[in-house]
Amino acid sequence: MVCMPASPSVAVVLAVKRLDAAKSRLSAVGPADRRRDLVAAMLADTLAAVQGAGISRVTVVTPDPRVDEIAAAFGARTLAEPPAGSLSPLNAALAHGLAHAHADAHVDTVAALQADLAALDAATLTAALAEADEVLGHDVDATFVADRSGTGTALLVVRSGVVFAPRFGPGSAAAHRTAGAVELDPGRARWARLRTDVDTPDDLAAAARLGLGPRTERAVTSVAPGARSDTNGEFLRS
Length: 238
Description:
Spore Coat Polysaccharide Biosynthesis Protein SpsA, Chain A, 8 helices, EC 2.7.7.105, seven-stranded mixed β-sheet, GTP-binding, about 15% strand, Phosphoenolpyruvate guanylyltransferase
């Protein structure tokens, strides 16, 4: 399948907390240093998918120097994480990145994307952004794609110049919907690779069933040498 690149006028923003504090719910997967490597690998595979979609305007908001290095390797700019204020740290970081992206006169749409999409590929991201662009062209301010559970958010896309506060976190799909964002593919029939963010071992197993990105695959093997995934997506020792 030929993957047409995303519109050059789209900017993508990701937010990553300090790796030492990231993904505590993955503690069962392996020791802390290997877990940090896994989180870094998922970020790199997510950025590779963004890059593969032809998106050159990418911003990563983070307090972590290692994340800065990963972002730079993919040509992304980085911003320091701002004080959270009344928002959650994730939403404060995304709002900060979105504001900077909106300031670019060449940008028509700005997308906030989860940074732990271990199975994401360029074709899936391109398709979702194309549909978002079409919907936004009908006087809609914002669109979103729910996660695989239907309760969280994997992707939020906003028209340039529109102030729309991100509401990522528990119950974010309902929060974005209530705020006026239009849900794309509400039946969740498409874009499984986009919808599968990884917070728990079960999420990682679901991503493995779809096919992990190469960096995440190597990191999983490093975390659990000899690990493999059975047909139910459970990680087993061989």
